[in-house]
Amino acid sequence: MQLVHLHSTGRLENMLGSSLCRILRRRPLKVTRCQVQEFTTSPQKIAISKVKEAGLLHSKALIGGKWLGANDGRTLPVHSPATGEVLVEVPYMGEVETNSAINEASKAFAGWRALTGSERSKLLRNWYDLLIANKEHLGHLITLEQGKPLTEALGEVVYGSNFVEFFAEEAKRIYGDIIPAPFSDRRIVVLKQPVGVVGAITPWNFPLAMITRKVAAAFAAGCTAVVKPSELTPLTALAAAELACQAGIPPGVLNVVMGDAPRIGDALMASNEVRKITFTGSTAVGKKLMAGAAGTVKKLSLELGGNAPCIIFDDADIDVAVKGTLASKFRNSGQTCVSVNRIFVQAGIYDKFSDAFATAVKSLEVGNGLHKGVAQGPLINEAAVEKVERHLEDALSKGAKVLLGGKKHSLGSTFYEPTVLTDTSTDMIIFREEVFGPVAPLIKFKTEEDVIQMANDTLFGLAAYFFTQNLSRAWRVAEALEFGMVGINEGIISTEVAPFGGVKQSGLGREGSKYGIDEYLEVKYLCMGSIKSF
Ligand code: SIN
């Protein structure tokens, strides 16, 4: 039912953007290749000036309700991944500014937690309304600084805003417990209280949604926050913060600092005021944060790397399998933690699937995300392209064959051709580490037992996908896969109502859904004694 609902209410467009969605629905797509000369600065400039006119282009950080530069005046350029242009300069902050943001968040905490759930709910709802009212501007900002196609960026605005709406509702439902006591003169009550100041460290691949997924839950619980967005994509964070101010969220409840990531991270970790760190990003950084949290014994939520298997069984509906795999692999040009990374195809369906899949991949138009019809934007920077190249080189040296793509795109140094590899094997780097790019490696398998063993043979456990029409197999495989989230005949599983998170080295805790708010709450037990009975 839920999956049907996703499609029927247009949520698939929200997640993927209409270009990719159009391909998935197999309507004919007129493919026009992007011209290099289209990459003038004008679409960027027009988009930036519209965002500026709307008052959403900030070049200062937000601390205690004030827009401030770095103490020493240093700045950091934010580039368009599509053209390399500098969009705007933002403050390059460090420890001092982070400590002052923590201080403001601490001061605001008492007042914010004292509001009723329904008062916090109304302010969150105002924020949601403003985010949605400014969908076009925020979408343009995401495409400008992150690169994803505009339709996908607009989808992210809706996805990200939905967390604010969802947690606005949850703010009113933070229930405790009454536990029957083992003694007649005692009563046992359990309260849920906000953990305190939260440090939220967010990535560049979803410049809005990864912030709202964290802070909306934190705010609903009564916590205040210091957010450190990625230095690559701070502009959407600042625009969202501007809208939070307009919504009436009090000064100091939301603070946004950026600049020297290690120094900001260290200040957040060292502070006794910061009681919780929530992070989305690499497993390597997550491990450092985990070690760093020991010094002050902070609560942690970590949403780290994945290595998602996608299994196509012989009994799969091939159209459904192609659509689902394409959606998961090529969303955000493969730059999501839940992107399919290893595609296992059963021998009996291998040729049919690989042909149909390569045909679908071929129809993805590559270009500047601001251009109409584009389904694949640039990768975030040249380092991301170099990583893809390293994975390809390794795979080809170990016997993989290129069915489609396989090299940098002629559009520029941040573009990579949507790629399909065959004859891949489990000894290749691409099967061990997430490629975080538009490369789909196919591997043939024989039996269900073999493929479950191969799928689970990874240090990571975020998302997994499989396609089958056999109900018993669906249960069996879903239960056997060691992953926090499993898509069955579905490639897009993210939604604000479901718990997002992984097992093994993919992280700790869950975001979104009714479970997400628990990450920002402490359980307090009250024991009332000497109760006289009749
Ligand atoms: C991520 O890549 O970390 C988030 C993806 C999602 O929310 O779907």
Please give a structural write-up.
- Belongs to the aldehyde dehydrogenase family.
- The active site is at 303.
- Residues 67-525 form the Aldehyde dehydrogenase domain.
- Its EC number is 1.2.1.24.
- Pfam families: Aldedh (PF00171).
- With 534 residues, the chain is of the alpha/beta class.
- 41% of the residues lie in helices and 19% in strands.
- It contains 19 helices and 22 strands.
- The strands form 6 sheets. Strands 14-15-16-13-12-18-19 form a 7-stranded mixed sheet, sandwiched between helices. Strands 9-8-7-10-11-21 form a 6-stranded mixed sheet, sandwiched between helices. A 3-stranded antiparallel sheet has the order 5-6-22, with no helix packed on it.
- Helix 9 links the parallel strand 7 and strand 8 (224-228).
- The longest helix is centred in the N-terminal third of the chain and has 21 residues, at 150-170.
- It is globular and about 75 Å long.
- The site of succinic acid has 9 residues, from loops.
Write the layout of secondary structure elements.
Layout lengths: L1 H7 L2 H6 L1 H7 L17 H12 L7 E3 L2 E3 L6 E5 L6 E6 L3 H20 L2 H17 L1 H12 L3 H21 L6 E3 L7 E8 L2 E5 L7 H13 L2 E5 L5 H13 L7 E3 L4 H10 L3 E7 L2 H11 L5 E5 L4 E5 L5 H13 L9 E7 L3 H13 L19 H16 L3 E4 L14 E4 L6 H4 L6 E7 L2 H9 L3 E2 L1 E5 L3 H10 L4 E4 L14 E2 L2 E2 L4 H4 L4 E8 L6
Parallel strand pairs: 7-8, 7-10, 8-9, 10-11, 12-13, 12-18, 13-16, 15-16, 18-19
Antiparallel strand pairs: 1-2, 3-4, 5-6, 6-22, 11-21, 14-15, 17-20
The structure holds succinic acid.
Succinic acid binds next to loops.
